[in-house]
Amino acid sequence: MQQKNTPGWAENDTACCWHPYSAFPSANPVYPVKSADGFSITLADNRVLIDGMSSWWCAIHGYNVPALNQAVSTQLDAMAHIMFGGLTHEPAANLADKLVAITPPGLDSVFFTDSGSVAVEVALKMAIQYWQAREKPHKQQFIALRKAYHGDTFGAMSVCDPITGMHSLFNEVLPENYFIPSPACRFNQPCETQDILELRQTLEKHHQTIAALILEPIVQGAGGMWFYSADFLKQAHALCHEYQVLLIADEIATGFGRSGKLFACDHASISPDIMCVGKALTGGYITLAATLSSTNISQTISSAPPGVFMHGPTFMANPLACRVALASIDLLLASPWQAIIKHIEKQLINGLAPCRELDAVAEVRVLGAIGVVEMLQPVDMTVIQARFVEAGVWIRPFGKLVYLMPPYIISDQALQKLCRAIYLTLSRK
Fold first, then answer.
1. Residue 382 shares a structural domain with residue 418
2. I need a surface site. Which of 121, 127, 324, 404 has the fewest CB within 10 A?
């Protein structure tokens, strides 16, 4: 039975809801949604939009998925939530085992969190506490990439690009870290000596105070949708080992098939010391993330005072979220997901190719189920969002980037409509 919306609820949103990256009240239009099913979003006025965003990249199976609905329903009959301090439950234990099995080798300890930003906070704290346990307390800083985005909480903001990123307002109160240029070597290209030189020089000079290098492997997401060489990632991994610096891989956006590999680190065949996952972990149903580490890190932290890792979110390992995450992973792995992503990639390459001929377009690039049209100038969100809705699609650009990260279940016809809508919208004066 479909839930009925309360009369006047959209007005309540206007009066009370402060939306992400928005003024209050919102200066840009906010579209009331009645329901979502498959790869379609139905607005309150009954217009239907094809979803090109996977709800900020997490709804990889689309909406109203029977297997995921059943997982939530089954778990709800047992318990919706239970604290994870001193207690445990089957969905968390089985999900941890599943994550250890499918992530790169050596990531054998799983710490559950409730969002991607918190997963990054946990990773940074793990790195610092690890070096304290190793009696190297001066190793408290991090290296990150220009154009990096790792989240909106304080620790996460401190490893986002302080100049081109979204958090420059807070620079004076954030911990100071080291930043190196975003890799210039493109995906499927070799990494030359000059491409890795600044990382090597920074490590040579500052490794005594650096706890870890944190990066988004292969795909820099919200910081620019840039796809870089797997060879860079491989060499960065080797340099971290050489200079005794941990490597943190932020796979929150790239995990679970989006780049064409199950995890982006797989493109370089490397295992980081710490990995963050989130977004698609539950198929977009319930917020959940996790920070995985090697047993070397977890056991080293546990063997030194205070003998425990100092973090504990109230809702960590929520049973509903863990149960639906298990169902989502099983659904993905049971599908021919590699072939599906390859097919979406081919469709995006063909569908977005005409955009290269537009004068306002700087570049078009595609990797896996990610299609990006980079403009010469930032888009006008007030105008372009309304035009996409008029065209019957949901596409949410930011800055100079008009991009697609569709659900994996998207049909060829719907994907073609998304690509065509981008071309026609960007063609308009």
1. yes
2. 121
